[in-house]
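The passage that follows is intended for readers who have already worked through the single-chain material. We present the inputs for a multi-component assembly, then the predicted structure in tokenized form, and finally a short commentary. You are encouraged to pause after the input and sketch how you expect the pieces to fit together before reading on.
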Amino acid sequence: MGNLKEIRTRISSIESTEKITSAMKLVSAAKFRRSQQAIIALRPYSNKLSEIMRSIGDAADSVEDMPLFAQRDPEKVVVIAITSNKGLCGSFNSSIIKETNRLIQDRYANQVQEGHVQVICLGKKGKDTLGKNYPLMLSNEAILDKPEFAQVAAIAEDLMDKFAKKEIDRVDVVYNQFVNAATQKITVEQFLPVAPQEKTEGENRMKNDFIFEPSKEELFRTLTPRILKLQLYKMLIDSIASEHGARMTSMSKATDNANEMLKELRLRYNNARQSSITNELIEIVSGAEALNN
Amino acid sequence: MKLDITTPGQQLFSGEASLVQLPGLDGLFEILENHAPMVAALKKGKVKVQQRDGNTEFFEINGGTAEILHNNILVLAE
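Having made your guess, compare it with the prediction:
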């Protein structure tokens, strides 16, 4: 009988877990849809901006004093790790933390020893672990709940400012690139200095013979920080969509597992119940037999 | 001419306009119908949009870039 009761409590506990995971799955599905829309909404904007950038790209050679392009030996390094605030999303956070640690230990081992590696953590999970291991330059959790361009731009501006003043020599970003709902790609991207872009010759747009106001060089100068800000914003949005996607898949897996377990437990419960009934019957029948004799 | 004003987060304006005034780096300038193709850097300021029916609207932008091509104006604001 004890076994029966045990199974019954297990069944009810798994049932409630299943309820929670399936509710969380629905919630993250809704959030996922919203964050995916944000990605889609941003796409034409960023495409257009890089198109304009390409059409003035040949001005890059004539602009010399671009501090954001300066390749220096990385002495002081900043690593931005974008994670999530909440758990229950599979390996989403742990892989980012692992990758960040690997990056810092492999590439910036010397700088770490001198204490010249700082981290910026967007998301609580990253802050909780990475913030303990390395000096934390900045952390922001609220930005994930409501990603506002102005806030991201402020972070990017601050970094560009410090970079131009040579207070930092290199900035890398570790984040989950969004592929689709079930797949995220852990990506390490160089944020600063700006990697020189590949030349695309023969742009048919150039036929239009644009007037550049004030000048190509000036445009190039103002456009570069703008593109960087957008880049960081894009990474953040990507990471948010990935997070909800990861949570959705892991919750759906958890729900499936719970259902499977329930099925098995119910079978075992019924088996145990049946055998206990049989036992009772045998007892009654054999008791009655004994009295008759 | 067709005008679109977008920021990374949202679309501020999309529609027909007869006159658009933009805050260029070197000062305000206006765009009328059939303007030559142009790419311009914008600074923080107001975009004035005069619609066909004479209504005028203002949009606050925090710098940006404008592209004018074949009577399509695209303002990538911040």
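Commentary: The first helix of chain A runs from residue 2 to 55. The domain at 62-197+206-246 of chain A is CATH 3.40.1380.10 (Pyruvate Kinase; Chain: A, domain 1). How closely did your sketch match?
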